[in-house]
Design goal:
- This protein has about 90 residues and is mainly beta.
- It has a single domain, classed as SH3 type barrels, CATH 2.30.30.
- Helices cover about 0% and strands about 50% of the residues.
- The protein has a five-stranded antiparallel sheet, with no helix packed on it.
- The chain is globular and about 35 Å long.
- The termini are far apart.
């Protein structure tokens, strides 16, 4: 089966992309709102935790490992936001 780069496209309107990270014995789960990169070896993930707190993860590409997951949308009445890197 081919790798699915369109994880978000396969979610219904009640769910959005979330990530789960496990590091140093702690697990963090958050709703992904946007992502980007810097200088091009750093990846930046922006989002909110379950309680609505802002979160930003900055990680070097050689260390990155994360789990994409479907999570219930925090604001289902707002239009669904597509995330990902631009292919321009």
């Amino acid at each position: 089966m081919p790798f699915d780069y369109d994880f978000d496209d396969n979610l219904d309107n009640l769910h959005e992309v979330g990530m789960r990270l496990v590091s140093f014995g702690q697990t963090i789960q958050f709703h992904v709102e946007d992502l980007g990169y810097y200088n091009p070896s750093l990846i930046r993930f922006y989002g909110k935790t379950e309680d609505g707190s802002d979160i930003e993860l900055i990680q070097h590409v050689s260390q990155i490992s994360f789990l994409l997951m479907a999570v219930k949308r925090l604001n289902p009445d707002e239009p669904k936001r597509k995330i990902g890197f631009s292919e321009e």
